[in-house]
Amino acid sequence: MTLRLPELWQTSPVAFWLVVACLAYFVWMAARLAVIDIRSHLLPNRIVLPSYWAALPLSIAAAFGSAGAFDGGAVVRVLGAGAVLWAVYFVLRVIYPAGMGFGDVKLAGVLGLYLGYLSWEHLLWGTAAAFLLGGLYGVVLIVLRRATGKTAIPFGPFMLVGAAVALLLPA
């Protein structure tokens, strides 16, 4: 996303400022949620739920991001990606409730909005990165004998880092 900003400034300054505001909020939200999840294994609603509203300007930025011409498909992609990622995490939660908290499900919808702004591929890469990083962390803990296969690991920080990595990928 950050690589797209100079082009966005040239084509649509309003969309540029919407994206910059959303990215600034993302950094604040990610830092707060990561610290809280690491300390308490919770992703509080007071931060996650307002993040949906803070990410919605991305749909407007996507709609008017290409030379000011309205792009309804981009709006559908942003909102659809949020819904799809929420649904995927919800299914994982239903299948194995001990493996994922509902805070992770709610956070997934927010991250889907951010990743959907760029593309469906970014959504896939951000999600894959989260599971890869979380899995590697778990394996390292097991190898170092600091955890077992039953040890609870906060997954929110890995979701946030995976999304951040994907946001830095070229569009």
Q: What would the principal axes of the Cα set say about the shape?
A: elongated
In angstroms, what is the radius of gyration? 16 Å
Question: What count of domains describes the coordinates?
Answer: 1
Q: Report the sheet with the most strands, covering strand number, pairing sense and barrel closure.
A: none
N-to-C SSE series? Answer: HHHHHHHH
Give unreliable regions as ranges: none
- Give me the secondary-structure category: mainly alpha
Distance between the termini: 7 Å
Q: How many runs of DSSP E, i.e. beta strands?
A: 0
Strand content: under 5%
| Helical segment count | 8
- Helix proportion of residues, in percent? over 70%
Mean pLDDT: 93
Family: Belongs to the peptidase A24 family.
Domain Prepilin type IV endopeptidase peptidase: 25-139
Protein name: Peptidase A24
Transmembrane segments: 14-35, 47-68, 74-92, 123-144, 151-169
Topology record:
Elements: H1 5-11, H2 13-40, H3 45-55, H4 57-64, H5 72-95, H6 102-118, H7 120-143, H8 156-168
Helix pairs in contact: 1-2, 2-3, 2-4, 2-8, 3-6, 4-5, 4-6, 5-6, 6-7, 6-8, 7-8
Please provide a brief summary of the model.
Helices cover 77% and strands 0% of the residues.
Detailed description of the structure:
There is one protein chain. With 171 residues, this protein is mainly alpha-helical. It has one domain. It has helices at residues 5-11, 13-40, 45-55, 57-64, 72-95, 102-118, 120-143, 156-168. Helix 4 (57-64) packs antiparallel against helix 5, helix 5 (72-95) packs antiparallel against helix 6 and helix 7 (120-143) crosses helix 8. The longest helix has 28 residues, at 13-40. The mean pLDDT is 93.
